[in-house]
Amino acid sequence: MELPIRLSKDSREPIYHQIENQLKALIAGGHLPADTPLPSVRALSKDLEISVITIRRAYQNLEYQGFIRTTQGKGTFVAEIGDSLKQQMKISSVYETIEKAVETAINYDYTVAQIEEIFHEVLMRHKKGD
Q1: Has this prediction a pTM greater than 0.70?
Q2: Which of 88, 97, 117, 129 has the smallest set of CB atoms within 10 Å of its CB?
Q3: Distance CA 125, CA 128 (A)
Q4: Backbone region of residue 66 per phi and psi (left: phi > 0; alpha: psi in -120 to 50; beta: other values)
């Protein structure tokens, strides 16, 4: 199984954190249901062309947080997570994404009014696509 994970080497966010956040979003969004087998650490390392240590760290953190489970000799699987954790994950993911967008705009010296205008335009464009 190939996971739709996109990494940004230019981001200040560590690679393992990017992997964690994208896997959490896939799980919380229902794209990876409970009991879905995940690639082995080595296989994912090869697919993403990054260190085995980086993948292992992401998997360990996800397991500690309850998003995945590893069964010795069988592999790593998506864990059953409750609706409240899914909802919490969705909310934090959206906030984090908007936070990054606002930070980018501020770094480009946009005013609050300009940022609000851009946000409104994007929102309206997506609303028309419904």
Answers
A1: yes
A2: 129
A3: 5
A4: left
Residue 62 tokens, joined: 């996800």
What pLDDT was estimated at residue 54?
97
Structural tokens at position 111: 């005013």
Q: Please, which residues bridge with residue 78 across strands?
A: 68
Residue 53 CB neighbour total at 10 angstroms: 11
Nearest to 17 by CA among 4, 26, 8: 8
Given a cut of 80, whether residue 104 has pLDDT beyond it is yes
Residue 68 φ then ψ, to 5°: -135, 165
What does the DSSP 8-state code read for residue 70? E
Task: Provide the 3-class DSSP secondary structure of residue 96.
Answer: helix
What's the mean pLDDT in 30-39?
Answer: 95
Tell me what pLDDT residue 48 has. 95
Region 80-97: mean pLDDT is 87
Pairing of strands 37-38, 68-71: unpaired
58: number of Cβ within 10 Å = 25
